[in-house]
Amino acid sequence: MTEPTSRTDDRFPGWDWDDPDGLETRLDAFSAQVATCKTLEARPGTLPHDHHDFRELGLTGIEFAAFRTAHPEGLGTDLATLRGAAADGGPGPATEPGTLYRVDGDRWFTQLDVSRPLPFADASVDWVYAEHLIEHVTLPVAVGWLREARRILRPGGVLRLTTPDLARYLVGYATGDGFLGKHRRRLGTLGFGPPMPARPAFLVNQIFRYYGHQWIYDLDELRHVLTLAGFTPDQIRHCAYRQGLRSDVADLDTAFRTDETVYVEADR
Fold first, then answer.
1. Which residues pair with 128 in a beta bridge?
2. Cα–Cα distance between 207 and 24 in angstroms, integer?
3. Alpha-carbon distance 55 to 15, whole Å?
4. In the chain, how many H helices and how many E strands?
5. In whole angstroms, what is the distance from residue 161 CA to residue 69 CA?
6. Is 0.90 surpassed by the pTM of this model?
7. pLDDT tens digits for 30-80?
């Protein structure tokens, strides 16, 4: 039996998985739907700048690519705009760069561009976490952001990165071990389009061509960019899911992505 494709699925008219450029607008719209919260309150004044400012707010670290961090002492941040809801249920206020926001009454958020210097002092936070962010920027931007992350870490602080593992995709493609099929089914649960093609070459290509991805890493490539950013080889460690120097930071790993993810930490 032939698998349904985007050309025959009436739920998604015009959707063609074989046209990455044509789907870019649709995928961007899906991402915008996720960038919402119930309440969004701007805090008067400036962003926290140094370690003292962070501690006054009860903050110990920063989670990048997070609209609502799961860490109770974390500042969430993302390049995309976060939008609250209006009283009538429609679109409400939206975030602007340079402002600190309270999200749903119990988390902090600010809008930041990782391609620019971070607006925080040296040695201002104890940890930095980023799940599936680094693959969304070019290699030079990644190195610049990692330098900034290292700069704002306090002595003894930790940076934890997670990203799709190129090696896992290529082993799955070369051996037919079932990974690509499992990965395809997992992505299908997100609901942003008809089932992906089951072709192995497509499933490898989509990790490069969709979602705004710019550079895909394996463990050695992560070590390379971390070293360029100033971390020494002995400071860089390959970790397992939810295992690391700080359990509260490692616990930010989400179970949804464990099948494809490589986990790395670097300490200051």
1. 62, 159
2. 14
3. 48
4. 8, 11
5. 15
6. yes
7. 777 778 999 999 999 999 999 999 999 999 999 999 999 999 999 999 999
